[in-house]
Design goal:
The protein is built from three helices and seven strands. The chain is α+β, with helices and mostly antiparallel strands. It has a single domain (3-128), classed as Nuclear Transport Factor 2, Chain: A (Roll). Strands 1, 2, 3, 4, 5, 6 and 7 form a seven-stranded mixed β-sheet that branches. The termini are far apart.
Length: 130
């Protein structure tokens, strides 16, 4: 694994820890600030903007929520200098409280951008595996 792949992989791990820990304080600095951040959910809902994404994460965290990525299958491709794509299959557990949890297989895709001296997530594009 080269330096870019190691850095982006570590950043993704921090994202998973923040998500599973329901920590907005840890998650917020990992996402591109401003209205250009993009998140397309598994239900094909498009969310634009850092603040809108954080609001959606906060709402989701009130329910049952857990990400379990298959890190052995993680792949990172440099798109251009300072931009990388990370792809990883994961098990996503989500359900309103009191409802039966059925884990879902997801293909998680993220566009990472180098900003100053660190990598951040500029876009999250999800697809449910049928």
């Amino acid at each position: 694994m080269n330096a870019l792949q190691e850095d982006v992989s570590e950043m993704f791990r921090r994202f998973v820890v923040a998500q599973n820990g329901r920590s907005e304080a840890e998650l917020a600095p990992l996402l591109l600030e401003g209205p250009e951040f993009l998140w397309v959910t598994t239900l094909a809902v498009t969310i634009w903007g850092h603040n809108a994404a954080l609001a959606r994460f906060r709402a989701n965290w009130e329910e049952q929520w857990h990400l379990d990525p298959d890190l052995a299958a993680l792949r990172i491709v440099e798109i251009s200098p300072g931009t990388a794509l990370l792809h990883v299959p994961l098990r996503f557990t989500f359900a309103p409280h009191g409802e039966k949890v059925i884990p879902t297989s997801i293909e998680w895709n993220g566009v990472f951008r180098r900003v100053e001296d660190r990598w951040i997530i500029a876009a999250i594009l999800l697809a449910t595996v049928l």
